[in-house]
Specification:
The complex is a heterodimer of chains A (368) and B (506).
Chain A: H1 4-22, H2 24-30, E1 41-45, E2 62-66, E3 74-77, E4 97-101, H3 102-113, E5 127-137, H4 147-161, E6 180-189, E7 192-200, H5 207-227, E8 230-238, E9 242-245, H6 247-252, H7 261-275, E10 282-289, H8 296-310, E11 317-322, H9 330-338, E12 345-350, H10 356-364
Chain B: H1 2-7, H2 15-28, E1 36-41, H3 43-51, H4 62-76, E2 84-87, E3 92-97, H5 102-121, H6 132-150, H7 152-163, H8 203-209, H9 212-230, H10 240-247, H11 252-273, H12 275-294, H13 300-311, H14 320-337, H15 341-346, H16 350-355, H17 363-373, H18 376-383, H19 386-391, E4 394-400, E5 405-410, H20 413-424, E6 432-439, E7 444-449, H21 458-472, E8 476-482, E9 485-491, E10 496-500, H22 502-505
Parallel strand pairs in B: 1-3, 7-8
Antiparallel strand pairs in B: 2-3, 4-5, 6-7, 8-9, 9-10
Helix pairs in contact in B: 2-5, 2-12, 3-4, 5-12, 6-7, 6-11, 7-11, 7-21, 10-11, 12-14, 14-17, 18-20
The chains are: A alpha/beta (368), B alpha+beta (506).
């Protein structure tokens, strides 16, 4: 039975999605939902999703309670209304928070940014065998017995034998009638991806820049997760030297000193060689920095590394240049100069938080 | 079918027998419930029914879906659980959660009979539709038909607008919810200045038969009346929804939707008006019936546990179950011992007052009388005494802007009572009245908010005004006070504006 509420519930979810889509730019820019991320869902505050009524406002924050305490004793924090179920309280003081699954969020993101679906790389090389229960066989374990098919066979047989009586339709399957589901191997595209985030953590990258990277990474993750069955993430930080770190360190580490981007690309190259066979993985290295590098010599080294080691193995290489007060922004120019028309290298400049939206579109808009 | 299965679990007596026993006990105590039908439902069904406010056949709208999500989430995470849901209808319907333990079912059945008795016998419920289940289904059918005929989005938009105004009814007119003009008079108005004179056969008597002062007063009254009659509406209308139904330039299906929303608001109003009394009454009786009649010795601990959970208070929240039941017991005790009336009130010997006992034994009689004629507002006003306020640790809390916390501000009896009464007046909603349907002589609508010291939430008021305009279709105006300034909020269909009226009035 389809419950009546399901239709209303579906409509409610639809309205939520519409609301999020409408305010997507705001959500992306503020990055407020990242902190509220669970494993499968994000909870998003939606103040506008309520039927507006004439009700008392802020200076009405008083009421009657019951319990111990002297005047001045705090009884509740200010964000929520303490009289949630008291008589005659103003209703709905709390902000409506809705849970949206990562998939739904990715879908909204994809639709709003008009992101193309990613075509897994090298279709001929990345195949895996998957078994699917699509066939029917005459023998098999009882747990896989195909009830409908079995009875259909029995019906056919009894009609052929002339023992079927439409007035008293009774069908008894015998051993030969039984049918079982059977599995058929099927080739499906290999569907694993790894995202390798690299970030410049030298002194010139401040908290604001890191926040931008964090927000951007959240949305990239969200999108890629919707496109691949399994997505792994790896993190590399660098200043003059590079190392692989875990996620928390990645966002919190603070180094000072110079910047040698090639060091990160080297670590990235090693990581791919060691753990991610390009014939089994879709590989997405993302690099964020403020565009300063130690010198043109190192930049040259970077370009060579990308050209020879990284690009042949990865789906696409993305470079995001976060504007900082100290960064010269030279590196993006150098990359653009070195790979003028390469479909595999995407660079994007992120001026401030408001720029995140467009930069995500640049990175993911090619469907690679 | 499903009910039967769980009833026979454990080989104990079926719930049906329990129900009959409890009903018998309730009747023996003097309760007089409506015939009550119990239905056992699974948690998701119960959540669904609760999301529809108790009426599974209600019209479709996304806000019920929103409520459902909240309930379902609360249940999944173990934060909240509905034990029971009871519908004011004849017969009364009560939905019980199938997974309730047996002792809970007993308690809940007794509780439901308390509500059922209250529905039947409290006068504020006397005018409610007792076939509301059918009526709601009827509403559902009508709205579904409009959905098909006029398109889902069109109807939804209108419903959203209508629901935005659903509390703009005249709560305290329970006895005349359908009070409307029954006939219209289209005859030419007489000259208001002409005053009827009594016949005086002699001129010199005229001065005495028709005294000039009196004639002048009459004339003035007539002129005033004529002025009032030209006003539209004649007197301020609290029932804004009714005014819109009658006068807004909308189509009939839209009128019908407004009338559906209004009818449901009037149906629900008595429950909101008697929340404390009703929950207190049901709690009082479930405790009484359970402890004196229905409880098995083995169930005592579970009962005590669950009963006290219903009465638990959080520091900031007022629990209507708790406040209600304590107040009922206090009334019963006072009338049993004669702790009321002038002699008691004027006694200033505290020791004597504490020991006061006249052995009147009027308690039971008194609470039945109170349950018949009171609502929360009069209940609190008449029976919340200083002693009770102190015994129950009631306090007033206030938001402290500096610390962004709610803090206990005082325990003074007068303030507590005043705050509580304010909360219960007009069900805690701001009071808005239509005063002019032809404002500025341009068919604009003017509403006045009777400001009682608390401002409206400006942002929401604007959104609600927009919805009001969607129905009225001409510009809408709301006079209110914001931060001590008399303001006129205007929405003309395109943009919001604000006029400062304080200068004109100062």
């Amino acid at each position: 039975m389809v419950k009546r509420i399901e239709k209303d519930f579906a409509r409610f979810r639809e309205i939520i999605k519409g609301q999020i889509r409408k305010d997507l730019r705001k959500y992306i820019t503020h990055g407020e939902m990242i902190g509220k991320r669970g494993k499968y869902a994000v909870s998003i505050p939606l103040p506008s999703l309520r039927i507006p009524t004439f009700r008392f406002g802020k200076n009405d924050r008083t009421g009657v309670g019951q319990g111990e305490g002297e005047p001045g004793t705090p009884i509740a924090a200010g964000e929520q209304d303490p009289g949630g179920r008291g008589a005659g309280d103003t209703p709905g003081q709390h902000l409506l928070e809705v849970d949206v699954t990562i998939e739904e969020l990715a879908q909204i993101l994809g639709e709003e940014l008009e992101l193309p679906r990613i075509k897994p790389r090298g279709q001929s090389t990345l195949w895996a065998d998957r078994d699917r229960y699509t066939g029917v066989a005459r023998a098999g374990p009882e747990s896989l017995r195909h009830f409908k098919r079995t009875y259909r066979e029995a019906l056919k047989r009894s009609m052929a034998m002339g023992i079927y009586d439409p007035a008293a339709p009774m069908i008894v399957p015998i051993r030969e009638d039984r049918r079982y589901r059977s599995r058929k191997p099927r080739q499906v595209p290999q569907n694993n991806a790894v995202v390798i985030y690299m970030m410049d953590v030298s002194g010139s990258m401040g908290d604001e820049q890191k926040e931008i990277v964090r927000t951007e990474a959240f949305w990239i993750d969200t999108w890629l997760r919707s496109q691949y069955k399994k997505v792994e993430t790896r993190y590399i930080v660098h200043d003059a030297s590079a190392k692989e770190v875990d996620r928390d360190t990645f966002y919190s580490i603070k180094e000072s000193g110079g910047t040698k981007i090639s060091s990160a690309y080297l670590v990235c190259d090693e990581l791919i060689k060691k753990s991610f066979n390009p014939s089994e993985w879709n590989i997405y290295p993302f690099h964020f920095s403020d565009g300063d590098n130690w010198g043109s010599e190192d930049t040259k080294k970077c370009v060579d590394l990308l050209q020879e080691a990284v690009l042949p193995r990865v789906n696409v290489f993305c470079y995001g240049q976060v504007k900082s007060a100290y960064g010269s922004g030279q590196f993006k120019k150098d990359l653009d100069g070195a790979f003028p028309d390469s479909p595999q290298v995407i660079t994007s400049e992120i001026r401030d938080k408001a720029g995140i939206y467009d930069s995500i579109k640049e990175f993911l808009g090619r469907g690679k | 079918m499903a009910a039967k299965k769980s009833v026979h679990r454990n080989g104990k007596e079926p719930l049906r027998i329990v129900q009959e026993e409890i009903l018998e006990a309730a009747r023996a105590f003097g309760l007089d419930p409506i015939r009550t039908v119990f239905e056992l439902v699974a948690h998701d069904e119960l959540n669904e029914i609760a999301a529809y406010g108790g009426f599974p056949t209600r019209y479709p709208h996304w806000r019920f879906g929103m409520g459902y999500e909240e309930l379902a989430k609360g249940y999944t995470y173990g934060l909240s659980k509905i034990y029971e849901l009871v519908i004011n209808n004849d017969p009364c319907y009560a939905y019980l959660m199938k997974s309730n333990a047996r002792v809970d079912q007993k308690m809940v059945i007794a509780h439901v009979y308390g509500h059922s008795d209250f529905f039947k016998n409290n006068m504020w419920f006397s005018q409610t539709h007792r076939r509301m289940i059918d009526e709601m289904a009827n509403h559902g059918t009508r709205i579904r038909r409009y959905l098909e005929r006029h398109g889902e989005r069109t109807v939804e938009e209108f419903l959203d607008a209508a629901l935005s105004l659903e509390w703009l009814i005249d709560y305290h007119s329970v006895y005349s919810p359908t009070r409307r003009r029954t006939r219209y008079d289209f005859s030419e108005p007489e000259d208001p200045a002409a005053v009827h004179r009594l016949r005086a056969d002699h001129d010199y008597m005229d001065r005495y038969i028709n005294p000039p002062d009196y004639l002048e007063a009459q004339r003035k009254r007539n002129v005033d009346r004529a002025k009032a009659a030209k006003r539209f509406p004649e007197r301020p209308e609290k029932d804004v929804l009714a005014f819109l139904i009658e006068h807004a330039p909308i189509e009939n299906w839209q009128r019908d939707i407004l009338s559906i929303v209004r009818e449901e608001s009037y149906y629900i109003a008595p429950q909101a008006l008697t929340k404390i009394m009703n929950e207190g009454w049901a709690t009082y009786w479930h405790a009484k019936i359970m402890t004196e009649k229905a409880l098995d010795p083995a169930e005592v601990v579970d009962f005590a546990d669950h009963h006290s959970a219903t009465l638990g208070t959080q520091p900031g929240a007022l629990n209507p179950y708790k406040l209600g039941v304590e107040l009922w017991r206090d009334i019963e005790d006072r009338w049993n011992r004669g702790r009321f009336g002038r002699e008691y009130d004027e006694c200033d010997d505290l020791a004597r007052k504490r020991m006061w006992d006249l052995n009147l034994g009027l308690g039971r009689e008194k609470i039945f009388e109170v349950r018949r004629i009171y609502n929360d507002l009069t209940f609190i006003d008449d029976f919340l005494t200083k002693e009770f306020c102190e015994d129950q640790n009631l306090f007033v809390y206030r938001h402290n802007a500096q610390s962004n916390r709610y803090e206990i501000s005082e325990r003074d009896f007068e303030t507590v009572k005043r705050t509580l009464l304010f909360r219960l007046t007009n069900m805690g909603h701001p009071l808005l009245q239509v005063v002019d349907g032809n404002f500025r002589n341009r068919s604009e609508l003017l509403l006045i908010h009777a400001h009682e010291g608390f401002d409206l939430d400006l942002e929401e008021a604007r959104d609600a005004l927009r919805n009001l305009q969607r129905i009225w279709q001409r510009p809408v105006n709301l006079e209110t006070v914001l931060e001590d300034q008399l303001k006129l909020l205007v929405y003309d269909g395109q943009k919001h504006s604000e006029e400062d009226l304080s200068r004109t009035f100062a």
